[in-house]
Amino acid sequence: MRPWHNLIETESLSLDGEWEFSLAGQTGRIQIPGVWEAQGYPRRVDGPAIFRRRVHVPAEWGSRRIQLQFDALSYHVEARVNGVPVGEHAGLWSAFAFDVKAAIRLGQENLIELTVYKPGDRFPMRESLAGFLPDVCIPFGGLWQSARLMALPHTAFSDVWLLPDAETGRVRIDAAFHSLSSRDAAIRLFDPNGNGVAQWRGPLESERLQAELSVPAPRLWSPSDPVRYTADLRLESEGQLQAVVRRQFGFRTLSHQGEQLCFNGDPVSLRGVLNWGWYPQILCPAPDEAAIRDEFRRVRALGYNLVKLCLYVPSPLYFEIADEEGMFLWLELPMWLPEVTPRLRQQAPLEYADILAQVHHHPSVVIYSLGCELGEDADANFLGQLNGILRSRTSGILACDNSGSGEAYGGLAFDYADFNDYHFYCDLHYFMPLVDHFSRDWRPPRPWIFGEFCDSDDFRDADEVAAAYGGSLPWWLTEKNPIHPLEKLAYVEQVQRMAQLVDLGFSGQDLQRISRQQSFAIRQAILEKVRGRDGMGGYVVTSIRDTPLATSSMFDDLGRAKVDAEAFRAFNADSVLLLEQGRARRSLQPDGRPPRRLPDCAVAHRPTARQRQPGVAAFGLIRRGACQRQQPRRRAAARRDAARDRLVRLHRPRAGWNLCPVRPVRSHPQSLAALGLSGRLVLAGCAGLL
Fold first, then answer.
1. What is the pLDDT of residues 269-306, one digit of tens each?
2. How many CB atoms are closer than 10 A to CB 358?
3. Cα 219 to the chain's mean position, in Å?
4. Exposed, middle or buried by CB within 10 Å (0-12, 13-18, 19+), for 210?
5. Is 533 helix (H, G, I), strand (E, B) or coil?
6. H or E segment at 325?
7. Cα(510)–Cα(515) distance, rounded to whole angstroms?
8. pLDDT tens readout for residues 580-619
9. Inter-helix orientation angle 342-359/316-325, to 10°
């Protein structure tokens, strides 16, 4: 069951802290929230893990409804209170609760016992929506978020949905309530300054509260102005207040007009970084407030405005801070290489609905995907059902069913997507041919957002990592990944393999520095190509931090930035100016004459020694030549040459870096032809910045 909520006449006993624990013959103490793999217990055993905690329950709770609530647990639990079974739950990413009133001994000490399994032998990983973290390192197990005992009055809310429409100001509210006597409900909406802006009151005829309110001229949530509204829901009976619940939400809309991606009606460029939820000290995606804020600050310094939560759902704190900080989020629901068994067909809709129930109202979440790189097992009926759940429980967002596309992974020949999404992991010289190959003229125009791409692994200096970990490498760099064969992932043998090589003449630090320079150049080249092409709405770069799986990241194993932030922003910012090289054509007719439609063609030839000027060469531009049958007018040519030289001097790049493109809002062909240049000047970025 889902947890109940009521802000009045409610008491709680936190179950965070120390529990008794046993797994695979090893017993001891364990801290909650936390996972057992990070606290010295067996990493490769899926269960059963036994948790025990004794807690005194006040006698005054006798008139209350008592719930045992968990914010998240991995993966399956059977719960007992004083030896009495009170329920079981499967699902790794969302909150749940058990009604334990019948088993509780009031005024006495009570024993809570949990038998927990993580994804593994009993609950196969690919059938358990375990996401991608097991591929990164290992699946984690245990109570990785908070737990508590709650004493609530017999009136409470659950399952609260808030669906705002930024264009109309309407807010649809749907909530379940549990009551013996409530007959009336009241809703008030408050603006970011705490002023009441809308209210509703009405009788209750069923156990659901459904209403629609209108906010005049709502203030929109955005990265530059991350404002939120508050909904206050109340249940009353004969004038007596019985239950109150509050939720914050924001008005915002991510949409598209043809190929143009828009946020709140204005052009936007989404520049994301891929986060697999890898936090090596805690082994679960539940960083504390300081770590989350620091993460957002550092990725924003690199020019990113979005974080893609790749196949995992972090703790609620992550979403709250993203709302406050104005960071866009892409939530990719945790379906990866699934075994679509009858059990998964039944379980996935339940888990997706539970996840959406607790995250849908966060304005920072602007994109959802149902899964990643799904193949033929994820059929149309299955994905269609999940897509229906997503669309009915969200507003103002864009969504896709299969990040990476079905056509690229043997899945559906059509999609349920609002945008094109491909994962091009390829050598640099194949990138643009792939973009051209996957461009579909027959498809209705919609923006292209790379759900993940642009990786470039660099060299990991094992000596440096070992020094930071007290002289030896951490276990996740010495133990073989339980999923991937050693031939595919051999970081665990890096030290031994490097020792077998002859002297390279380079230290580990040298190799690391050189490889990072190369990775920077590769990313710069690819992002420039993407930002300079029409129809590109955004991208997600792989990835945010080095992992046992890969070193293609912005931050290394020690959390340090690998690139200079200012240099990276040069091609990863909202708006930059690009001087783009054109493709000149020569006539190859036998008589050397130009094409017949001389006034409409751009005829170029190899520049003579007189025409090779340093400024032009710096851009790879070729001076437009005169046709054989036309004598150039000397004065006009002199004016063109002078204007061309002024342009080249004005836009000549500094040594060591280039003027870089961003997503073009408009391509502005300037009068380069009049200047004797073959090419075009592209002014790119957000329209509001031009």
1. 999 999 999 999 999 999 999 999 999 999 999 999 99
2. 19
3. 25
4. middle
5. coil
6. helix 316-325
7. 8
8. 666 666 656 666 565 554 443 333 333 333 333 333 333 3
9. 40
Q: Higher confidence at residue 507 or residue 206?
A: 507
Q: Are 226 and 203 in contact (CB under 8 A)?
A: no
- Residues found in the chain: 690
Q: Could you please report the per-residue DSSP string of 19-46?
A: EEEEETTEEEEEEESS-GGGGTS-SS--
3-state secondary structure of 523: helix
User: Distance between alpha carbon 630 and the CA centroid of its chain, in Å?
Assistant: 58
Residue 383 has which token pair? 């994905």
User: Rounded to two decimals, what is the model's pTM?
Assistant: 0.85
Degrees, nearest 5: CA angle 489-492-494 = 95
- 242: helix, coil or strand? strand
Give Cβ neighbours of residue 374 (< 8 Å, ≥ 6 apart).
335, 338, 383, 401, 402, 404, 406, 409, 411
The label of the residue with tokens 């790119």 reads 684
- Residue 637 tokens read as 């040519």
Strand ranges across the sheet with 156-164: 156-164, 170-178, 208-214
Closest CA to 462 of 482, 438, 486, 490: 490
Nearest CA among 657, 447, 687, 448 for reference residue 574: 687
DSSP string, 203-229: E--SSEEEEEEE-SSPPBPBTTB---E
Cis amide linkage into residue 146, ω under 30° from 0: no
- CB count within 10 Å of CB 26 equals 12
CA 479, CA 461: separation in Å to the nearest integer?
17
The owner of tokens 């665990």 is 492
